Amino acid sequence: MNEAVICRSVVKNFGTGENEVKVLRGVDFDVHYGEMTFLVGPSGCGKTTLLSVIAGLLNATAGDLRVLGTDLAHLRNGKAVEFRRKNLGFVFQQFNLLPALTAAENAAIPLLAAGWNRRKAVDKAVTILEDLGLGHRVAAKPNQLSGGQQQRVAFARALIHEPRLVVCDEPTSALDADTGHHVMDLLRRIAVRPDRAVLVVTHDSRIFPFADRIAHMNDGLITNIEKNNEGELEHVA
Questions:
Q1: Which has fewest Cβ within 10 Å: 17, 34, 186, 196?
Q2: Cα separation of 29 and 116, whole Å?
Q3: Containing H/E element for 127?
């Protein structure tokens, strides 16, 4: 099976009765291993909600959802948290770096949360940051880093525990065009591999060429899927 994520008729509603809001209206969507998939569409169309459901941060109201071969609806009593900790890496829109920690300490957080020895966790973080061109800034605090440097720390934190699914919410929204292209190039180089899938929610059309597939979303549904074939986008669904 080449699908890291399989969504079939996924529904997500908020509220009840007259106050019920239907955000996802029966989504069919796959994310493939070895690819970077973009989820795009206008504000309010349901992109972040779908990302949150796939990541296990929200429960689907109805439908079938399998992530890395696991039915998230059946995970109970902390097992969902454990599943996310082991298998998912997150890159947030606002980076969410802890201001009191160094770049290396921020990147090491997933390993520290998993019970790693602090020295070993920070040493591994330093190695990844060096690969990302931040070897000279591992001791810097977030307020001493540029936006692009903070983004690379966020990438390191998302990848340090070798997750099988990396999810990114607007990873270039705070970056200029050149820096955005640079960090997406880095993300492709270090994150896209045969045993991992990368899912990116974005409004930034400047980075569309980095996608293997682009899923267009509108009004709670996937409306069109394009595949990047040597720089040419082809409709596939």
A1: 17
A2: 36
A3: helix 118-131
- In this structure, what token pair is assigned to residue 184? 């997406």
Neighbours of 112 (CB within 10 A): 16
Three-state SS string across 152-171, please? HHHHHHHHCCCCCEEEEECC
Q: 237 pLDDT exceeds 70?
A: no
Using an 8 Å Cβ cutoff, are 132 and 183 in contact? no
Name which of 200, 191, 140 is nearest 164 in CA terms. Answer: 191
**144-176: pLDDT as tens digits:** 998 888 988 998 999 999 999 999 988 887 778
pTM: predicted TM-score of the whole model, two decimal places: 0.89
For residues 198 and 213, the answer to whether their CB atoms sit within 8 Å is no
Q: Which residues lie closer than 8 Å to 34 by C-beta, 6 or more apart?
A: 2, 192, 193, 194, 195, 196, 197
**Percent of the chain residues past pLDDT 70, beyond the cut:** 97
Number of domains composing the chain: 1
Tokens 């439908």 appear where? 63
Please answer whether residues 19 and 45 qualify as being in contact, where contact means their C-beta atoms are separated by less than 8 angstroms: no
CATH of the domain at 142: 3.40.50.300
Structural domain boundaries, residue 38: 3-235
Element (H, E) at 116: none
| Tens of pLDDT, residues 189-220 | 888 889 999 999 998 888 999 999 999 999 99
pLDDT of 17 > 90? The answer is no
